[in-house]
């Protein structure tokens, strides 16, 4: 069977990006980092090509990291294997809505 | 290293030898389009600006059209004026002519309307095309290259494959003494600290932070979450969750070399070498215009979702990071960087292929968007309202 692959760009990242099609809930995925370390992960949701999966638990309010940098903040508690996207990741920039609610 | 280009009277070197038909205002587009349809070797800049705007924007339109007309890929220019517009068409003609290339102007109102202006414009454009069509390419140093770079229709593969390959090409051109320009200030948001660290001086670093803050302030002033505007629905469908994530992937295309400074939207490169930033939005019609204003002979354009568009006088090489998109849109995509994602090729291998393709395009080989003439929709980025 073809290996279902996820790539973790930086060692400090708590998400990996899925580069395979047909990743459905319950699929086993191999997560690789740049040094070649691997980790097997069972995904908890259907995850489209190019989307992210949590590789460790991320609590609500914690930073989400990719490329070793902050890409947003968890808006809910996220468990390993969960799809990470706009439903549970809040952007911290360009937030005119938050600016307005402060006024 | 050398390439063969068209050496202009002011010493600039073009990769194309086109007659630019330049409407000085949106109201002249129909006449300009009729001229371009009839006369081989012409291209048109069919923008939507030039009247009923505040003075700084009118100046910006005139400045942009001067830079486009002065671009080394343009051998001669025909300005199409309505006659009552807000742009300064006298300065437009004068400053393009100062580069030493032939420039003509026709005025629709003065000539007696559409049909007469089209006739006069066709005659003028035909004469200009014939005047420059015999010019031969000459061997010239690679340091004359000005490459522009951009990513559009991004997905999660862009930041991991196609942008990285373009970053490799960017470093290579900088090391060869050429000039590289990147922009998309919106897509520095969340990554500006990394770019500022690469600035040659603290002042340049501060300027990078300043242009990002100005861009973000414009978005914040509307009072909503920027998502949907940036990242776009297509970016989000492709797996990008926030502007920070998009930006961190986007800056990979600039490579690793020091950033020499920040250019304004309409600025043309004069003698600057190395890697430069241009303050532009991310949307294609406006950024491609801004990049062509620098005098770039070509653009290297990274995409994941599949962005097909180009620019009339600047060939655009499409480097596709998504292997599925490349297969699906291979008549629009010039190079498959998706092989990096599938593990079949390294970033360096695809980067070398992209560099070789850039040299061929500089020497005259057409890009896919050029062959399809997919470059009709352009615009000039404005700061103020239409009034």
Q: What does this 3D model show about the protein?
A:
Chain A is mainly β. Chain A has one helix at residues 96-102; strands at 5-8, 15-18, 28-33, 38-42, 52-54, 63-66, 69-74, 83-84, 89-90. Chain A is 7% helix and 35% strand. The model of chain A has no long low-confidence stretch (mean pLDDT 92). With 387 residues, chain B is of the alpha/beta class. Chain B has two domains: 18-132, 3-Layer(aba) Sandwich (Rossmann fold); 143-371, Rossmann fold, CATH 3.40.50. Chain B contains 15 helices and 14 strands. In chain B, the strands form three sheets. Chain B has a seven-stranded parallel β-sheet, with helices on both faces. In chain B, strands 4-3-5-6 form a four-stranded parallel β-sheet, with helices on both faces. A three-stranded antiparallel β-sheet of chain B has the order 2-1-7, with no helix packed on it. The A-B interface holds A 7, 9, 17-19, 21, 48-52, 66-67, 69-72, 84-86, 89-97, 99-100 and B 155-157, 159-160, 189-191, 194, 216, 219-227, 230, 236-239, 241-245, 248-249, 304, 322, 324, 341-342.
Total number of helices of chain A: 1
Give the N-terminus to C-terminus distance of chain A in angstroms.
Answer: 56 Å
Radius of gyration of chain B: 20 Å
Largest interface (CB < 8 Å): A-B, 31 and 36 residues
What's this entry about, in short?
Chain A is mainly beta and 103 residues long. Chain A has one helix and nine strands. Chain A has one domain: Archaeosine Trna-guanine Transglycosylase, Chain: A, domain 4 (Roll), CATH 2.30.130.110.
Helix-strand layout with pairing:
The complex is a heterodimer of chains A (103) and B (387).
Chain A: E1 5-8, E2 15-18, E3 28-33, E4 38-42, E5 52-54, E6 63-66, E7 69-74, E8 83-84, E9 89-90, H1 96-102
Chain B: E1 2-7, E2 13-14, E3 18-23, H1 29-38, E4 42-44, H2 55-70, E5 74-81, H3 89-97, E6 103-107, H4 108-111, H5 114-132, E7 138-141, E8 146-151, H6 158-175, E9 179-182, H7 192-197, H8 202-220, H9 233-237, H10 243-250, E10 259-263, E11 274-278, H11 284-293, E12 298-303, E13 316-320, H12 323-328, E14 335-336, H13 338-341, H14 347-362, H15 368-371
Parallel strand pairs in B: 3-4, 3-5, 5-6, 8-9, 8-12, 9-11, 10-11, 12-13, 13-14
Antiparallel strand pairs in B: 1-2, 1-7
Helix pairs in contact in B: 1-5, 2-3, 2-11, 6-10, 6-14
């Amino acid at each position: 069977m073809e290996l279902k692959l996820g790539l973790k760009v930086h060692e400090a990242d708590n998400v990996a990006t899925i580069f395979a099609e047909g990743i459905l809930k319950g699929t086993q995925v191999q997560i690789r980092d740049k040094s070649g370390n691997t980790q097997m992960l069972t995904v908890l949701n259907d995850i489209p090509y190019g989307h992210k999966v949590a590789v460790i638990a991320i609590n609500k309010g914690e930073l989400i990291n990719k490329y070793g940098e902050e890409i947003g903040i968890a808006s809910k508690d996220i468990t390993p294997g969960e799809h990470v996207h706009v439903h549970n990741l809040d952007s911290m920039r360009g937030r005119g809505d938050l600016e307005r609610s402060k006024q | 290293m050398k390439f063969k280009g068209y050496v202009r009277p002011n010493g600039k070197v073009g990769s194309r030898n086109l007659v630019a038909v330049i409407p000085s205002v949106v109201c002249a587009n129909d006449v300009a389009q009729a001229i371009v349809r009839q006369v081989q070797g012409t291209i048109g800049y069919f923008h939507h600006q030039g009247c009923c705007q505040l003075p700084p924007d009118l100046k910006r339109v005139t400045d942009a059209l001067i830079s486009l007309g002065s671009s080394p890929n343009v051998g001669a220019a025909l300005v199409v004026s309505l006659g009552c517009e807000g742009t300064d068409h006298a300065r437009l003609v004068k400053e393009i002519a100062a580069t030493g290339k032939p420039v003509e102007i026709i005025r629709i109102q003065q000539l007696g309307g559409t049909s007469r202006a089209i006739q006069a414009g066709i005659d003028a454009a035909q004469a200009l095309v014939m005047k420059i069509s015999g010019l031969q390419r000459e061997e010239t140093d690679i340091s004359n290259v000005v490459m522009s770079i951009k990513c559009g229709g991004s997905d999660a593969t862009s930041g991991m494959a196609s942008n990285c390959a373009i970053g490799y090409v960017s470093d290579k051109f900088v090391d060869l003494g050429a000039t590289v320009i990147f922009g998309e200030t919106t897509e520095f948001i969340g990554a500006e600290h990394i770019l500022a660290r690469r600035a040659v001086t603290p002042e340049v670093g501060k300027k990078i932070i300043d242009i990002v803050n100005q861009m973000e302030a414009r978005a914040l002033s509307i009072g909503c979450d920027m998502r949907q505007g940036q990242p776009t629905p297509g970016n989000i469908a492709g797996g990008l969750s926030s502007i920070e994530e998009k930006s961190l992937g986007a800056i990979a295309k600039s490579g690793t070399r020091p950033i020499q400074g920040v250019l304004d939207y309409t600025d043309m490169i004069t003698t600057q070498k190395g890697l430069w930033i241009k303050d532009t939005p991310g949307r294609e019609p406006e950024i491609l215009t801004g990049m062509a204003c620098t005098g770039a002979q070509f653009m290297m354009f990274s995409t994941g979702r599949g962005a097909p568009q180009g620019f009339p006088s600047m060939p655009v090489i499409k480097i596709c990071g998504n292997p599925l998109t490349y297969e699906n849109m291979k008549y629009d995509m010039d190079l498959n960087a998706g092989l990096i994602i599938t593990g079949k090729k390294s970033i360096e291998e695809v980067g070398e292929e992209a560099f070789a393709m850039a040299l061929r395009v500089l020497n005259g080989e057409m890009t896919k968007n050029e062959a399809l003439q997919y470059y009709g929709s352009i615009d000039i980025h404005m700061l103020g309202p239409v009034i």
